[in-house]
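Internal tracking record. Fields below are filled automatically when a chain is submitted to the structure queue. Please do not edit lines marked as system-generated. If the sequence contains nonstandard residues, flag them in the REMARKS field before resubmitting.
Queue: standard
Priority: normal
Entity type: single polypeptide chain
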Amino acid sequence: MRIAILSDTHGSLDAFNKVLEIAKPYDYIIHAGDILYHGPRNPLPEGYNPAELAKAINKLDVPFIAAAGNCDAPIDQVVLSVPIQSPYALLIIDGCKILITHGHQTTEEELISLAKKWKIDILITGHTHVKVLEKKEGLILLNPGSCALPKDGTPSFAIFEKSNLSLVNIETGDPIKSIAL
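SYSTEM-GENERATED OUTPUT FOLLOWS
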């Protein structure tokens, strides 16, 4: 099982396509929110084309699991054939429980408490545009950063395969950091 994990595309078809090219082959795609719209505080990302990004998502032949971000709106569901779940998406694959949320409505402490209550293995958030991959209180915390508008200098996404989770630089395709499950 191979899963591509991204967040904060903000309408960038170019960034989305780069992630898919580097990540292939993949069995699932997880998106932690802010899919189509760039938002009023963000510049237009390179390759901004939300209509074509929606078409690309709709053409996927693998499951696309998405949690709603603060820039996602109900009208986005009109152009997307996949549901944007809010505020959480829960995925259980091969016994691994994955909780996905954008993270803009809740503190990290509240999310960790919820994840522990639900016996989650991996907590995925977005929103900050800053990548994080760490173990905390027996839980793996992942923010794949932003593939379109990174605030830490490097556009990124993550790959989850077997018992390994890695952050990946989309400019080079090289791993940035990995953690074993």
